[in-house]
Amino acid sequence: MTESVPFDGAPTVPPARDIPSTFMASLRSWWAAGEKEAASSEERILRRLPFFRSGSSISSSPADGSVIAHSERVPLSKPKHYLNTFSIKSTAPSPDAPPPAVLLHGYGAGLGFFFRNFPALARWAGMRGTSVYAVDWLGMGRSARVPFRIHAKRDDIPGRVHEAESFFVESLEEWRQRAGLEKMTLIGHSLGAYFSTVYALRYPERVHKLLLLSPAGVPRDPNNTVPSREMLDRQITGEDEPVVADSARLAALEQEQQTEKKKEALGRRLFTHLWEEGWSPFQVVRFSLFWGPMLVGKYSSRRFGALDEDETRDMHDYITNITLAKGSGEYCISHILAPGAHARMPLVDRVSALRIPIAFIYGEHDWMDPVGGMTSIDNLKAAGNEKARMYIVPRAGHHVYLDNAKAVNKLLVRELDE
């Protein structure tokens, strides 16, 4: 059972502001930030979908008649705990429908990042008589910003990792129960892919398939990933088809990563200290106060430059508001990942226990290590799981689902149908 709270009363959605490029514009954006503006900024993104309904219009019929979508807060058992949820449901559910798909965003992001994937997945849901959900992790996006605490000692790595993982995984399991889902196909991005895999390891009977988009925390080698590139990453657009990974493509991607790592050696010692002390990169934005929206604006302009002007402004407002919200789930990062962004308990050493289909999907210019994915597939096959595969998406980086949405959407629908 869910509690529908559509955007706190479905506030009137004002037009998107320009991306702050001056002090006064940044000050106005900072002053306006808050839960209501966060709800409005998310709704501006979702209103691009013809099947989306908000507030009093939730019960109205969709234009195409196949699906209808709305947002709600799904309450959890603890007081003030809830997960922000976007649901796309078939208006003609089929008794033979495949398990619903659940999209799970990466570190510090939110469900709005998938706005270019929703139309294709909605068509799939309408044709198959099933549902698609996108969920904000507890403590991120527009879900409840509850205190994040780890009680294990610093040198108790398994204890720290288990507690941090449980914060997210157990809230997802409770959400599944509240939503009344028997099985799900999890589509996770980056750290969301990591948590999706951990969820599947704890609750294998609840997961039909894993589709991992540029998953974090897979390899053992601390030198394989460069965390600072998350904020420096630029959008790469394209419509080329994904291809099955081969040795030549993996070698080219590894060479590109090695070149980038040499450029980023300066400041690593300071970064390591801050990381181990539990520092969050989003604290920089909050501590900068009214300069924060300008910092986010620089990232938005660079990262989403290939979107049209309105899309870029709306994404900026959305990112600004979820970034300036109270810190919570973001503090998991130093417990899950060590400096260098490799997992303290890498998935490559754990994933072979799974017996479900798994697809690793990387961008051609990704900064996540695809060799970790390939090694995981080898481990899965050695353990008897032949239902593992890997894809490289051309002209895409870490945000592969957004950089080359057309290609990824086709791939996701194909995987969901198999």
TrEMBL record:
InterPro entries: AB_hydrolase_1, AB_hydrolase_fold. GO terms for molecular function: lysophosphatidic acid acyltransferase activity; phospholipase A2 activity. Residues 101-405 form the AB hydrolase-1 domain. One of its GO terms (cellular component) is mitochondrial inner membrane. One of its GO terms (biological process) is lipid homeostasis. Belongs to the peptidase S33 family. ABHD4/ABHD5 subfamily. This is Alpha/beta-hydrolase. The lineage of its organism: Eukaryota, Fungi, Dikarya, Basidiomycota, Agaricomycotina.
